[in-house]
Amino acid sequence: MYTLLVILHVTVSLVLILIVLLQAGKGADMGAAFGGSSQTVFGSSGASTFLGKMTAGIAILFMITSLFLTYTASHRSSSLMERSKIPVTEQKLPVSNQSTATQPALPPVAPASK
């Protein structure tokens, strides 16, 4: 479910980028306004275009997927450390019959001279 949501979110974000890049900016109308166009300098407030409506819809879908991803990421109970199924075993050192603490220290051996 989480992977499907991430794939949907990435797809929606790419579509949103493409739709925004396809639209003409508001600054494109300003040059025509000084040339005798009937629109105002800051654009007309007429009917929305298809790309404008589609941008609003995709932006809402992007926000919804963002909220769901945030919710699922914060409520995931398992972490990477909890997912590892490697059993932890206790390793013991071999025990000798005599303790090293009770053995006397040996004096250093001098090299033989010829």
What's a concise summary of this model?
By secondary structure, the chain is mainly alpha-helical.
The string of secondary-structure elements, in order, is HHHH
Rg (C-alpha, Å):
36 Å
Percentage of residues assigned to helices: 40-55%
Strand content: under 5%
Query: Could you name the ranges where pLDDT drops below 50 across 5 or more consecutive residues?
Result: none
Describe this structure in words.
Helix content is 50%, strand content 0%. It is an all-alpha fold. Helix 1 (2-22) runs antiparallel to helix 3 (50-74). The longest helix is centred in the middle third of the chain and has 25 residues, at 50-74. The model has no long low-confidence stretch (mean pLDDT 77). It has helices at residues 2-22, 27-33, 50-74, 80-83. It has a domain at 2-76.
